[in-house]
């Protein structure tokens, strides 16, 4: 920062009254003090942000790393080969096709091995749907995929469950929760070179928690949003060095276990957080599961069906679009 200082010709000042000299010196000193205060405030703000980020990243140390093998449950048909996001509702697994797909969610039955229900979200556009979550009365669809980091129209669609039939196809209308990230100031176009891509979120205690897919630093930032329709600034509440790209998230029904799904160099992984307080997930116990046996699987969806059972979906890549299951109780002595 260049600071221009007031230059004074004291030969001219001598010809002025004592009061004028005093006034000029006062103005000069006030300007210098004002500049110094601005510099100090900027420095303090930068230092505080650095300290907060550093403290969060220091808490990213894993407690254990486990090599695990999710059990294959079903192979999805071609109608949902680009599936992204997963919830379990009305005894069906609900998903959709991501970027460029239709504005439709599909209900898939494991017992029948087929899609049994289709719901059109009539007033929504699937620009880049990436994840889905739910509370007791609503379903939320995250249209926040942002590969280039340029989007200024990030939105979460909120659908009342009461408008969804238990058996029949249908059409629903959705409210919008629009948002931007509080710390994103640049919207430059750079494919897979942004820290503000996103594919993961879940609901907890009347809040939505959004997790970024950071192509630059391989960390994830956690943001908080209200659940009421409106236009918001997403508040940054945590940072975790996930060492990979986050693609899905969920929390167990008893609110005691959080799971983040992702991949690194084509290796799918999951990080599970336990023993945390309230929403301070990253300061709990942290266990990483590397899924070596499904290398190259593009894992895109994750949901708890009970407190210890997780289902994971993968879109078609070098292997077919699949649904997997993993039981956390296998490692309960390590997790809890």
Number of strands: 22
SS strand fraction: 35-45%
Mean pLDDT across all residues, rounded? Answer: 89
> What sort of overall outline do the alpha carbons produce when their principal axes are compared?
globular
Largest sheet: 8 strands, mixed
The span between the termini is 51 Å
Order of helices and strands: HHEEEEEEEEEEEEEEEEEEEEEEH
Spans of at least 5 consecutive residues with low confidence: 1-8, 43-54
Reading off the top of the CATH hierarchy, the class of the largest domain is best stated as Mainly Beta
Helical run tally: 3
Biggest sheet: strand arrangement = 7-8-9-11-15-14-13-12
Describe the protein in words:
The chain contains three helices and 22 strands. It is mostly beta strands. It has an eight-stranded mixed sheet. A five-stranded mixed sheet has the order 1-19-18-17-16, with no helix packed on it. Strands 3-4-5-6-10 form a five-stranded mixed sheet, with no helix packed on it. The longest helix has 41 residues. It is globular, with a radius of gyration of 25 Å. The N terminus is likely disordered.
Short description:
The chain is mainly beta and 336 residues long. It has helices at residues 10-13, 18-58, 332-335, and strands at residues 64-67, 71-75, 87-89, 92-95, 104-109, 114-121, 131-134, 138-143, 155-160, 170-172, 175-181, 197-204, 207-213, 220-226, 230-240, 245-251, 258-264, 267-274, 285-290, 298-304, 309-315, 322-327. A hairpin with a 2-residue loop joins strand 12 (197-204) and strand 13.
């Amino acid at each position: 920062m260049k600071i221009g200082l007031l230059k004074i010709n004291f030969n001219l000042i001598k010809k002025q009254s004592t009061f004028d000299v005093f006034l000029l010196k006062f103005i000069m000193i006030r300007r210098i003090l004002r500049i110094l205060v601005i510099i100090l405030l900027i420095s303090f703000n930068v230092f505080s942000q650095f300290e907060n980020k550093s403290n969060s990243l220091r808490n990213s140390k894993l407690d254990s790393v486990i090599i695990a093998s999710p059990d294959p449950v079903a192979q999805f048909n071609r109608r949902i080969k680009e599936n992204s996001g997963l919830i379990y509702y009305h005894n069906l697994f609900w998903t959709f096709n991501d970027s460029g797909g239709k504005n439709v969610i599909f209900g898939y039955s494991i017992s029948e091995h087929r899609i049994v229900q289709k719901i059109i979200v009539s007033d929504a556009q699937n620009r880049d749907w990436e994840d889905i979550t739910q509370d007791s009365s609503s379903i939320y669809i995250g249209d926040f995929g942002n590969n280039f980091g340029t989007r200024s129209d990030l939105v979460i669609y909120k659908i009342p469950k009461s408008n969804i039939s238990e058996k029949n196809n249908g059409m629903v209308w959705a409210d919008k929760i629009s948002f931007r990230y509080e710390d994103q100031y640049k919207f430059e176009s750079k494919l897979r070179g942004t820290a503000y891509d996103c594919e993961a979120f879940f609901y907890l205690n009347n809040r939505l928690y959004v997790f970024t897919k950071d192509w630059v630093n391989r960390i994830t930032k956690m943001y908080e949003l209200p659940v009421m329709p409106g236009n918001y600034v997403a508040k940054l509440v945590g940072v975790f060095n996930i060492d990979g790209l986050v693609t899905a998230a969920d929390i167990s029904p008893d609110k005691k276990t959080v799971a983040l799904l992702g991949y690194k160099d084509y290796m799918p992984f999951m990080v599970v957080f336990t023993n945390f307080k309230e929403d301070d997930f990253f300061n709990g116990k942290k266990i990483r599961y590397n899924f070596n046996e499904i290398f190259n699987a593009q894992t895109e969806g994750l949901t708890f069906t009970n407190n210890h059972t997780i289902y994971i979906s993968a879109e078609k890549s070098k292997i077919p679009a699949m649904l997997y299951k993993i039981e956390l109780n296998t490692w309960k002595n390590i997790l809890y």
